[in-house]
Amino acid sequence: MIKKKNFIFPLYKEKGMTSNQVLEIIRKITGIRKVGHAGTLDPLARGVLVVGIKREATRELDKIRKQEKEYIAEIKFGFESETDDEEGKKKKIEIKEVPSLEKIKKALFDFKGRIWQVPPKYSAVKIKGKEAYKLARKGIDVQIKPRKVLLKSIEIIKYRFPYLKIRIVCGTGFYVRALARDLGKKLGTGAYLKDLERIRVGDFKKKGAWKLKDFKRYYIVNFSNYEKDKKNSF
Hints:
alpha+beta, nine-stranded mixed beta sheet, about 25% helix, globular, disordered C terminus
């Protein structure tokens, strides 16, 4: 349910769209320029994107951004990816031994808790004021410093080599792509993030999240007379 007072709600972002593209569509639907989200999702990822409309709501997004997030991730072994996910150029890794489930459990346990993690070079992390992915696309050697992140819990859902499906709960700033990459290095198999779905951000869950078409219909029916800022000052 969208609350008029705060105007903050979970939207289900589909695969293939950027988070900013979603915001632009919402701006067109509502006619309001002041729209933001509480943590981006990569174009290849899908799931909960918490959106705030109008100044009062967008000011609250930073608090939500810092809350824990829950993901369902599928990792593929046997390759390394330039972007650490499905999008990048792949390099096949010669595997000496297929890792057992027990070996994977043990390796994953080492990532639990507060750890140092190096974000992917194809990410929005700033290096001297510029996004790392923009530098990487120009062929510039990107060196990103490790940062402290929190992985609260890991649960293996299914494993059938070369695919591993897991559920994780993590803190802000955690890159699931980096977890896939680092797990592959630890096991000596190589790995990248094949698929990712965010199912929760704080108290905002997948269940009850709006799809864009549903939000548009709801907004037109319930807020057609809602006061809009014609001067785009919100």
